């Protein structure tokens, strides 16, 4: 993702290379009979040992990444601990004792005094009605033990957890389930956070914050309540873009001309956007079946290409593992499956093949040539307005980013042949979708921009990837 104009950021080094990682703290181990991905969203303590490794390995990763300019953003699960049905014992990733029945978490420690159950007014203790803001914030989300975030003690424990991560060198946080926390409680905790570690960041740099608030409209809680704390996830983005690229509901790419606020999204300066995430790539959650994923690779690359070329929001690219889907009555009953793992439960290594793709069922979308090159495109055009919009009224569109880059899509079932005004300096450019610039040549298609800035684009409807992107850093 890039971080243009995020209010919480002053450091230009926040801009480009970022990695959002899974929750690194201790969580419940669920064997049902195999470990699901979502166990990492059920904390047991704030010790840094998880399925991804030990504290020592975490520190080593952060140090090595920071040293090469790849900054780490931690998924922070602070609304709750494990589910109330989690039992008692040491079935946790660092072996800390807990008892979900008595709400005792010895690794923090938390006791029953640190949870919200007394405050929740529903009969079941669960969130029953998303129209009631008190239920959504003070009751249990699908049985998860809900922390009393107004308590000094709880705030202190969470702030210490996040400050420990900051001291290790992390650059920011995704705040999981933010809709289920009061914005004022989040503000209080953020106010306790230290500046980033000056071994890698300039003095006074604040952590980058983005809050997970699923607001598709129609609920009592609005994403706008969270703007004061940092960026907010815009879940309408991937849901709507999926419909457009799939051409569902009569949508066409030409309708993307006013993409962004014009589609009812939050202001660009507040938004964290993505085509899919770890939750909705599994066919449930916000967006339902319209969400594009690596399973629909050709459409997915178009969606990611559009997102990365378009100036709206701070963008995030997903990186996944493959699992075998099994649809029963339209639902994937394998939506719980965890990462590629060995029979002892350990996670398989992310191996890198000779062609730079990943092995062991890791998909590594971020390494796909088309996606990697569009991240470079985004960085190249950073700060430039959207210019030279063109469309055919249907599913062929093109637009530029000032005099830095230009992209053309043909999502029709017919071939495209159009001469368009790119706004780019004259010259020969490498298409960074069908190939890239290597040395003094293009490995894929070449595009010639005339002295007037125009260029001819021919895109077959059956092309492997029916879009073309050129930018000034891929000019011969
Ligand atoms: C929260 C929302 O505000 C929301 O609008 C939404 O669509 C989903 C959630 C949600 O957030 C979670 C955050 C966590 O840290 C841990 C969690 O377990 C959840 C979570 O479960 C969750 O909702 C699940 O997914 C929705 C699509 C369903 O409508 C919910 O019922 C719920 O589904 C539950 O998933 C099942 O009811 C339960 O039986 C099952 O054990 C549980 C498995 O856990 C997950 O699927 C975890 C999802 C998850 C979603 C996230 O957005 C997230 O950031 C982290 C985890
Ligand atoms: Ca809550």
Describe the structure.
- This protein has 476 residues and is of the alpha/beta class.
- It is built from 7 helices and 24 strands.
- The chain has helices spanning 55-67, 133-138, 152-168, 183-191, 235-246, 297-309, 369-381, and strands at 18-21, 71-76, 80-83, 88-89, 98-99, 104-105, 144-146, 172-175, 208-211, 231-233, 271-274, 314-316, 327-328, 331-332, 386-391, 396-401, 405-410, 416-421, 427-430, 437-438, 441-442, 446-449, 454-459, 467-471.
- The strands form 8 sheets. Strands 1-2-8-9-10-11-12 form a 7-stranded parallel sheet.
- Helix 3 crosses helix 4 (183-191) and helix 6 packs parallel to helix 7.
- It is globular.
- It starts with 17 loop residues before the first strand and ends in a 5-residue tail after the last strand.
- The structure holds ligand 5J7 and calcium ion.
- Calcium ion (CA) binds next to loops.
- Residues 38, 41, 77, 141-142, 144, 176-177, 179, 212, 214, 279, 284-286 line the site of ligand 5J7.
Comma- or semicolon-separated keywords:
7-stranded parallel β-sheet, 476 residues, alpha/beta, disordered N terminus, binds calcium ion, globular, 17% helix, 7 helices
């Amino acid at each position: 993702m890039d971080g243009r104009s995020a209010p919480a950021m002053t450091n230009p080094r926040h801009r480009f290379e970022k990695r959002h990682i899974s929750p690194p703290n201790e969580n419940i181990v669920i064997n049902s009979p195999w470990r699901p991905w979502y166990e990492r969203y059920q904390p047991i303590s704030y010790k840094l040992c998880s399925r991804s490794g030990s504290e020592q390995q975490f520190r080593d990763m952060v140090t090595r990444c920071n040293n090469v300019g790849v900054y780490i953003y931690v998924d922070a699960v602070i609304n709750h601990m494990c589910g109330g049905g989690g039992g008692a014992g040491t079935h946790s990733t660092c072996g800390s004792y807990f008892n979900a029945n008595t709400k005792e978490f010895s690794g923090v420690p938390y006791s029953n005094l640190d949870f919200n159950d007394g405050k929740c007014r529903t009969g079941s203790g669960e969130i029953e009605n998303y129209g009631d803001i008190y239920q959504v914030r003070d009751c249990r989300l699908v049985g998860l033990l809900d922390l009393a975030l107004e308590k000094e003690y709880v705030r202190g424990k969470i702030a210490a957890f996040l400050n420990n991560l900051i001291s290790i060198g992390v650059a920011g946080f995704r705040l999981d389930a933010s809709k289920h926390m009061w914005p004022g409680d989040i503000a209080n905790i953020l106010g306790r956070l230290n500046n980033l570690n000056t071994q890698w960041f300039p003095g006074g740099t604040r952590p980058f914050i983005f809050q997970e608030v699923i607001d598709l409209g129609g609920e009592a809680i609005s994403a706008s309540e969270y703007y004061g704390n940092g960026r907010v996830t815009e879940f309408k983005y991937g849901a709507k873009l999926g419909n457009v690229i799939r051409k569902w509901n009569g949508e066409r790419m030409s309708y993307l001309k006013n993409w962004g606020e014009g589609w009812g999204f939050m202001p660009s300066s507040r938004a964290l956007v993505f085509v899919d995430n770890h939750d909705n790539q599994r066919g449930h959650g916000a967006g339902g079946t319209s969400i594009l994923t690596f399973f629909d690779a050709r459409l997915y690359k178009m969606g990611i290409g559009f997102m990365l070329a378009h100036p709206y929001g701070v963008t995030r690219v997903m990186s996944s593992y493959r699992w075998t889907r099994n649809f029963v009555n339209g639902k994937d009953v394998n939506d719980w499956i965890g990462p590629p793992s060995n029979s002892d439960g350990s996670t398989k290594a992310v191996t890198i093949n000779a062609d730079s793709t990943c092995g062991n069922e890791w998909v590594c979308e971020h390494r796909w040539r088309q996606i990697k090159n569009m991240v470079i495109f985004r960085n190249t055009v950073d700060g430039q307005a959207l210019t030279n919009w063109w469309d055919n009224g249907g599913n062929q569109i093109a637009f530029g980013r000032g005099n830095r880059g230009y992209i053309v899509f043909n999502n029709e079932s017919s071939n495209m042949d159009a001469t368009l005004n790119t706004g780019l300096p004259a010259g020969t450019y490498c298409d960074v979708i069908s190939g890239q610039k290597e040395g003094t040549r293009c490995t894929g298609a070449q595009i010639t921009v005339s002295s007037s800035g125009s260029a001819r684009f021919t895109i077959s409807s059956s092309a492997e990837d029916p879009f073309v992107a050129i930018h000034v850093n891929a000019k011969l």
